[in-house]
Amino acid sequence: MTATTTERGRADEQGVAHAVGSYLRVFVGLRANAWRLLLGNLCLNTGLGVFGVLFNLYLIALGRSFDYIGLVAAATTVGQAVAAPLVGQALRRFDERTVMMAGAGGMAFAYVLSALVTNATLLIVAAGLSGAAFSIAVIPALPYMMSHATARQRTHLFSAYFASNTLGTMVGSLLSGAVPALAGQLLLSHAHMHGHVHGHVHGLAFAQETVGEDRVGLLVGAAIAAIGVYAFWLLRPQTPSADSLDRPARPGEEGRDARRIRRDVIVMLTATAVIAVTMGATLPFFNVYFSTRLHTDTGTIGVIYAVSGLICAIAAFLTPLVGRWGRLAGFSATRILTAPAFLVLWLHPTLALAAPAYVARNAIGTISGALENTFAMEVLPARLRGTVASWRSFCFNGAWSVGSLVAGVVVGRYGYDALFVAAAVLTLAGSAFYWGYFARRPSS
Fold first, then answer.
1. Quick one: pLDDT band at residue 202, thresholds 50, 70, 90?
2. Which phi and psi (to 5°) does residue 439 adopt?
3. CA–CA separation, 68 vs 343, rounded Å?
4. Could you tell me how far CA 153 lies from the centroid of its own chain?
5. Alpha-carbon distance 308 to 302, whole Å?
6. Which of 94, 100, 298, 312 is the most buried (most CB within 10 A)?
7. Does pTM surpass 0.85?
8. Domain match, 208 and 292 both
9. Beta carbons of 158 and 319 less than 8 angstroms apart
């Protein structure tokens, strides 16, 4: 090995070490408020993870039909969509901290209500309230992060925020299995001690114990979500970063700026809807696809989903590295790269290829989502960030619901092949539309 080659190797190692060190220093340099926000979001998503797994099981233990469970799921989505536009109005009167505290408190209350009531109507109300409260809690985080991080920190903070979504849901999913199991042991010990003296047959007693286990789990999820209220309460007033403030319009350009902003918002909402239709049409059906098309057992599907969650959390922290290409270029490239996963599922429907394709699609989509949200908040003027974030959430949830409804019909009539081909086409079209507009826009 020559001296020149050795020197180059050392230089490369030093360059990598410098890049990693710089990357980590940005995370360490985040303000205290940023870490409090991440803690609050982690608590919310942990509670959501518990609720997402246990609530349907709780309804089954109560003897509810699958049609009723579908109605409850729809109520949650409707609650998210209906509340989203109202968040923008709330942010005009209250600061982000107050709105996020209200949303986190609403989630905790909804989870407690879900755990304590058995009335069919009240359970639907609780589900709708949980969805609405979640929108209220998370939408203000986007403009808050934009205002309270420097341009260098912003992508790192958004990536950490998306990682906390995944990590929280994973922890919640684990707790949803551990807490009811522990509660079940305690309830079973209590039942044995008293010998079912109340005269219940064993089957009924078992059903009641199952309801009790799920109820305890839901209450634990509510308690964790309530910690999010405290985390948001800890947020302290601070001066917004200078580069997050609106620049004064030049004389005579107010009208032109207003028209440009209107076009920006329309493009954002349209692209959001197209991508959300694709996600709503595919993500809820992947477990069914694995089971019915690829004949995968439930345990294997669970492993695939767990691995996907872990990889997504890791991918989220890699977002700043991709963002070095530029927010718009990074978002567009990563979103386009999710399309081949659908084509793999169409052309080679085997578990050996489908599982990695599913995981890769989700991981790349996580990076894309963090970059797209960062870019959208930077493009918009400060006065509109909360409002547009709420309308984007409304479009996303509404389009997701439409995609799920349409996908059921498409799969029933034409099969999964047609669904995956359409998903790939829509993904490419939505990404190209977004990139094509903003790439030509000045200062994008």
1. very low
2. -65, -30
3. 34
4. 21
5. 10
6. 100
7. no
8. no
9. yes
